Amino acid sequence: MKSFGKSDTGNKRSNNQDSIFYSDSPVGTLPNLYIVADGMGGHRAGDKASKMAIDITLDFVKKTSLENPVAILKRAMIFANNEIYKAASHDPDLSGMGTTMVAAVAMDGKLYVANVGDSRLYVIGSDIRQVTMDHSLVEELIRNGELERKKGRNHPEKNIITKAMGSRDEVMPDFFEIDLCAEDKYLLCSDGLSNMVEDDEIRDIVVEHQNLEQIAQALVDRANYYGGSDNISVVILSE
């Protein structure tokens, strides 16, 4: 796999509460690993939560003897959730902190994906498909037939997350498995991109550029062009 990642503060925020990690080389028993986390909480708590989520996940992955990617991601993210929750419970300055996380591993012709929250993974080729499912109030309203998807982007409660790492003592990620295709690219992103740029436009930007670094920069630039109201993080990968 080949990958490139970029995280940007955006135009409206004073600090970046997103964290990213991407490695095409082995991490522990995993052949590669890609992560985007979007923190939430007080002034410094959000960045701490997203950084903790990635650091603790990486530490777990490097130490475990497990080899199944789903089992590794599951246990790593559950452990990271517990550690973030304990830290938030013991320090008043960190009370209420939490983070989204979307993680992916490419292995044996498959892409294994785990997510908590509303950071996303897309498959982009001739079209664009969101693989992950947002853990958000708006997504629940859409799935229950109470809201049209096209109206969800501008819903006043679009930022309410129904599941996050660190907000409760227990969390269970969602898991997805897709076939890798040499013609496709795979995008992990925070909602600072997906709330600013329509899916079809994301696809157009990815298709217009071949170089992964150019794609990442162009996506960030487009989100900032439309206002950059949140931190923007992307990790783009291909075979």
State which percent range the strand residues make up: 25-35%
Per the CATH scheme, the topology name is Phosphatase 2c, domain 1
- Whole-angstrom Rg: 17 Å
Query: What name goes with the CATH superfamily?
Result: PPM-type phosphatase domain
User: At the first level of CATH, what is the class?
Assistant: Alpha Beta
Number of strands: 11
* Low-pLDDT residue intervals, each spanning 5 or more residues: none
Q: Work out the count of structural domains.
A: 1
Q: Find the structural class using helix and strand composition.
A: alpha+beta
Which geometry do the CA atoms define? globular
Residues in helices, as a percent range: 25-40%
CATH architecture: 4-Layer Sandwich
> How many distinct helices?
7
pLDDT averaged residue by residue: 92
The largest sheet, given as strand count, sense and whether it forms a barrel, is: 6 strands, antiparallel
N-C termini distance: 4 Å
N-to-C order of helices and strands: EEEHHEEEEEHHEEHHHE
